[in-house]
Design goal:
By secondary structure, the protein is mainly α. The chain is built from twelve helices and no strands.
Length: 277
C-alpha cells in the first residue's frame, strides 16, 4: 500500500494528472468543432503542461536547495527534463503559426516563475508574475484557454469565428471556477498580499461568484451559431459536478480534494462527451 501511495503522490506532484486534464480539455475542443484526432497537438500539450507546471512549482526549490535536493525532487527534475525533450520533439511537428503563438505564452510561463520584472509592480517583496496581487488565477486561465481552445484549431488552420471566441470565453470562466477550490484551500498558506479571490471577498462570496460564473458559462452556449444537443447535455453534467466541488470546498479540505478530484473534472468532461457522442 505504501508503494502505491508513493506512485500516486508522484503522479500528482509530477503534474501528470494536471497534464491529462489539459489534454482532455484540448480533446474536448477537437470534438466540439468536429476536428479529427490530432495526436501531435495532444502529445505536445501533455509534455508542455508537465514542463511548465513543474518549472513553476519547483524552480524556487531547486534554485535554493540544488546541492541537497530530496530524492523525490531529483526524480521529478529528471522526469521534467524528459517531458521537456518530448515537448521539443512534438513542437517541431506543429504548424509555424502555432509555434509563434506558443512563444508568447511560453514567455508568460517564464515570467510567472522567474524574477525579472521591476520591483515597483509588486507587493510582498516578490518579483515574478506569480506574486502580483490578484493576477495568478487569470494568467493560468489565459494560458489554459490558448492551449486547449486556440492551439488545436490554429494548428489545423481553423478560422477563428464567433463560436471559437465564445468557447474561449467559456473555457476561461471554467478554469477560473476550477481554481476557486484551490484558492480556498490555500487561504491558510497564501500571504494576504497576494489578493486571491477568497482573500478579497471571503469564502462564501467566492462560492457565490463560482455559481454565477457557471451560469454565465451555461448561457453562453446559446450565443453560438451552431448549438449541439450533446454539448448542452455535457455542459449540464460538468456544471453540476463542478458546482458540487465548489460549494463543498473549504480551507481544511483533504489533500486530494483539489489536487486530484477537482483537476479530474476536465477528464470527466471528455469522458461524458465521448460517451454521448
Amino acid at each position: 500500500m505504501g508503494v502505491l501511495k508513493q506512485i500516486f503522490n508522484f503522479y500528482i506532484n509530477s503534474s501528470i494528472h494536471v497534464a491529462l486534464a489539459v489534454v482532455a480539455m484540448t480533446w474536448v475542443t477537437l470534438l466540439q468543432f468536429d476536428m479529427e484526432f490530432n495526436q501531435t497537438v495532444l502529445f505536445f500539450v501533455f509534455f508542455a503542461t508537465i514542463t511548465g507546471y513543474n518549472f513553476v512549482k519547483y524552480f524556487g526549490v531547486a534554485k535554493f536547495h540544488h546541492r541537497s535536493l530530496a530524492a523525490w525532487l531529483k526524480t521529478i527534475q529528471i522526469f521534467s527534463l524528459l517531458a521537456f525533450l518530448g515537448m521539443s520533439y512534438f513542437a517541431l511537428k506543429l504548424d509555424i503559426n502555432s509555434i509563434i503563438y506558443l512563444s508568447v505564452f511560453g514567455l508568460i510561463t517564464f515570467l510567472y516563475a522567474i524574477p525579472l520584472l521591476p520591483m515597483r509592480y509588486f507587493r510582498d517583496n516578490q518579483k515574478n508574475l506569480r506574486q502580483v496581487s490578484g493576477l495568478k488565477v487569470y494568467l493560468i486561465a489565459l494560458v489554459w484557454v490558448f492551449t486547449t481552445v486556440f492551439l488545436p484549431l490554429i494548428d489545423r488552420g481553423f478560422r477563428i469565428n464567433l463560436d471559437v471566441v465564445i468557447t474561449g470565453a467559456q473555457r476561461f470562466i471554467f478554469v477560473i471556477v476550477l481554481m476557486l477550490p484551490f484558492e480556498i484551500r490555500d487561504l491558510i498558506y497564501d500571504s494576504i498580499k497576494l489578493g486571491t479571490i477568497p482573500q478579497r471577498i471571503g469564502v462564501k462570496n467566492t462560492k457565490l461568484i463560482g455559481v454565477l460564473l457557471l451560469a454565465v458559462f451555461f448561457f453562453l452556449e446559446y450565443f453560438k451559431e451552431g448549438i449541439r444537443e450533446v454539448d448542452v447535455i455535457t455542459n449540464v453534467v460538468i456544471i453540476g459536478t463542478t458546482l458540487f466541488f465548489v460549494l463543498f470546498a473549504h480551507k481544511n479540505q483533504s489533500k486530494y480534494y483539489s489536487a486530484f478530484w477537482v483537476e479530474s473534472l476536465p477528464i470527466l468532461w471528455l469522458v461524458v462527451l465521448l460517451m454521448l457522442g
